[in-house]
Amino acid sequence: MKESRFNLIDEAWIPVAERGLVTLRQIFCDPTISALGGDPVQKIAILKLLLAIAQSACTPKDTTDWKNLGVQGMCTAALAYLDKWHDAFWLYGETPFLQIPAIEKAEKKSYGTVLPMVATGNTTVLTQIHIEKPLSDSEKAQILIQLMGFALGGKKTDNSVVLTPGYPGKSNGKGNPSTGKPGPSVGFKGFLHSFVMGSSLVQSVWLNLFTTADLDQMRFYPAGLGVAPWERMPQGEDDEVARELKHSYMGRLIPLCRFVLLKENGLHYSEGIAHPDYAQYIADPSVAVDFSSKKPRVIWADIEKKPWRQLTALLSFMGNGSNKNNFECLQLKTSIPRTTGLEAFAVWSGGMQVSSNAGEQFFSGNDDFVESEVQLSTSIFNNESIFYVTLQDEMNYMERLASVLWASVKGYYADSKADGTSFASQATSLYWQLCERNFQKLVTACYADSTGQMAQEMRNIFQSNVYSAYNSYCPNQTARQLEAWVSNRPRFTKNIGTDTKEGLANHVN
After folding, report:
1. Contact of 314 with 194, CB cutoff 8 Å
2. Cβ neighbours around 152 below 10 Å, total
3. Checking CA distances to 327, which of 122, 199, 231, 234 falls within 20 to 30 Å?
4. Does an H or E element contain 55, and which?
5. Average pLDDT, the chain
6. Which of 327, 323, 330 lies closest to 284, judged by CA?
């Protein structure tokens, strides 16, 4: 009999802010834990696990039931649930947590194979970050949870092993093993996920719980809540349990997109359940999707456009149709109205940008993790449509300033008979970095300043950011440089024109 050891309920493995590692039991016992730690993907994957536990323990019937449950009621139910299912949370043993022992037939890979930041095979090692290191059991547990939804697509999965007889999903047109599909939580380029955050981690879990009524209204999950996979694991890629997970909310929290078996010095690794994606009109509720056009669209994680710049799209449900993008994030749409009894809350958004080539997903030199957190007061509900329209106007103004800057830098280098496209892009990137420092103040101004004075002060700051970025990339030391600098220096009218090149030209003298 294989030894059962490292139980995720009792052993410390979850990174939390300012505390290091804690256990699953501690999460639901200690209300002083403020937030999860780690990179954005770790935060999302572990938060989904916590939601799966809470939903399994005490899914409320409706909003009234949710309010009556409260944070303490949820924690009490979750702890009782963890006690009941304690033996299902062993990382190793006869029935290891979220693992498929039968996949041992698949080729064993090193742990670095499934870590985006680690260089394996013929990948170039640039820094110590890229070197594969021995992993602790806590780190292996973190990797396991991430692989359930955030596994990258490619040839690293051994799809020669098929557990459901006759299942064609792991073969290509020639009958050979296919490359692994991207996890449903990452998609082609890396989805941006968003959640509501409270003053503590358990309050955040409670705020993001769905009720039975919520799930009934969602068109994504015809099987409703479903059953947590550790209660009933599938035996193959397309058996009855796997098919139920494909169509239930629990299957999006813990997708089992990879069948994994952990070993001391590596893991057996193959594609698991192939979930439908947003192109089939199914998505994680934490992902903002626009289904109004012929081809569905999503908001991707983008290192050039930090999540805070997507706030108006993520909050489009507040705009009463004023947002032209028609994106909808069901997680925020459902959870934000429940914060009315609190003084404040936050919108957290994060993910990872990835590259793809010939079916292989990877971290290139331009890819990275992204995350933003914006604090909001529940006073926005006093007149949320005005708050949203004001925020949208200010964000549009910032975008127009960025366009003016881009045209100015481009014009500066054109006067010198040079291609300034790269410099214009770099200057614009610097402008957004400078604006990020004051974005929280702008959001506060949109709901706390009825006179508009604070918003105007913020506009002045953002204009000064344009000048700072312009000066950083457009030197004026020589006579020729000075002439081009003066000629193209951004100038702002009271009403900055349209986003067309012709309109912008009127604001660059």
Report:
1. yes
2. 24
3. 199
4. helix 40-58
5. 90
6. 330
What sections of 208-345 are H helices per DSSP? Answer: 212-217, 240-246, 250-253, 311-314, 330-335
Torsion (CA) 457, 463, 467, 468 in degrees, nearest 10: 60
Q: Which two tokens stand for residue 431?
A: 């402008």
- Residue 262: left if φ>0, alpha if ψ -120 to 50, beta else—which one? beta
For residue 50, what is the enclosing H or E element? helix 40-58
Is the torsion defined by CA of 179, 242, 81, 99 positive or negative?
negative
C-alpha 81 chain-centroid distance? 28
Q: How far does the chain reach from its first CA to its final CA, in angstroms? A: 79
**Could you tell me if 14 and 103 are in contact, meaning their C-beta atoms sit under 8 angstroms apart?**
no
SS3 (DSSP) at 496: coil
Q: What is the 3-state secondary structure (H, E, C) of 409-457?
A: HHHHHHHCCCCCHHHHHHHHHHHHHHHHCCHHHHHHHHHHCCCCHHHHH
CA distances from residue 363 to 123, 357, 359, 368, 500 in whole angstroms, order as listed:
11, 11, 13, 7, 34
Q: Whose CA is closest to 211, among 84, 27, 44, 67? A: 67
Q: Which residues contact 161 (CB under 8 A, 6 or more apart)?
A: 103, 105, 106, 270
> 195 forms bridges with which residues in the sheet?
348
What are the φ/ψ torsions at residue 254 (nearest 5 degrees)?
-130, 85
The tokens 């256990």 sit on which residue? 23
pLDDT in tens, 414-445: 998 999 999 999 999 999 999 999 999 999 99
Q: How far apart are CA 243 and CA 230, in angstroms?
A: 15
DSSP state for residue 257 in the 8-state scheme: -
> Considering Cα of 35, then 39, then 44, then 45, what sign does the dihedral take?
negative
229 - beta bridge partners?
none
